[in-house]
Write a structure and sequence with these properties.
Number of strands: 5
Shape: globular
Strand order of the largest sheet: 1-2-3
Order of helices and strands: EEEHEE
Structural class: alpha+beta
Distance between the termini: 22 Å
Mean pLDDT: 82
Bound molecules: zinc ion
Number of domains: 1
Radius of gyration: 12 Å
Amino acid sequence: MSDYTCKCGAVNEVELQPKGTATGLYCLKCGKWIKWVTKEEANRIYFRFNTKPVSELPNELIINGVVYIKK
Ligand SMILES: [Zn+2]
């Protein structure tokens, strides 16, 4: 999986923020917007980095055959 790098230099220090129907990826360090993510990518980011939960996340997610249970 690719890394999420912010212009401030933070790597993989991200949080998800729902904005209406879209979900934005933001830097935890400086709060800068990094990119818009799809719901699927938001789920992957959530389970990978244990970021703040996005609404409508499933309780269980299967990625590449691995089952992730929401904590
Ligand atoms: Zn930043």
